[in-house]
UniProtKB/TrEMBL annotation:
Cross-referenced Pfam families: Ribonuclease
The keyword tRNA processing belongs to this UniProt entry's keyword annotation: no
Keyword Glycosyltransferase found: no
Name this protein carries in UniProt: Ribonuclease N1
Single GO MF descriptor: RNA binding
Stored InterPro entries: N1-like, Ribonuclease/ribotoxin
Keyword tags: Hydrolase, Nuclease, Signal
Signal peptide: 1-28
């Protein structure tokens, strides 16, 4: 590329601009995504009453109605901010009329689990999340 530019009589400014454009394009392709897309937020009081109850159970440490409540959530969908394995735990939000656990969950992160740093709500089995906002700041 440089030899072609020299033979074509391109000015130093043109050469620099072309090379910087090429380098910028390569750099953009190689840079891995580092940020998680911004998530919607929801006030705790706006959640379904069943989700509010599950949140109260999380803060109290249970007892939880399902044996899988409190298990580590792996964040395989990578929709939540990346944290070390074990940071997130999931809890079932009862769905009226459902014969199984349904699709609604709370996912909370932090230690201890009874004082989570952050909680998220999903009503579509991890396809999307909303960050739960505490009422104190409202």
């Amino acid at each position: 590329m440089l030899s072609w530019l020299a033979r074509s009589g391109a000015s130093a400014v043109t050469t620099a601009l072309l090379l910087s454009g090429l380098a910028g394009g390569v750099q953009a392709k190689e840079a891995p995504p580092t940020a998680t897309p911004a998530l919607a937020e929801i006030w705790l009081s706006e959640l379904p009453v069943q989700a509010q109850e599950t949140h109260r159970l999380v803060l109290a440490g249970g007892p939880f109605p399902y044996s899988k409540d409190g298990v580590v959530f792996g964040n395989r969908e990578r929709l939540l901010p990346r944290k070390a394995r074990g940071f997130y735990r999931e809890y079932t939000v009862k769905t009226p009329g459902a014969r199984n656990r349904g699709a609604r969950r709370l996912v909370c992160g932090g230690t201890p689990p009874t004082a989570p740093e952050v909680c998220y709500y999903t009503d579509d089995h991890y396809a999307s999340f909303k960050r739960i906002r505490a009422e104190a700041g409202r």
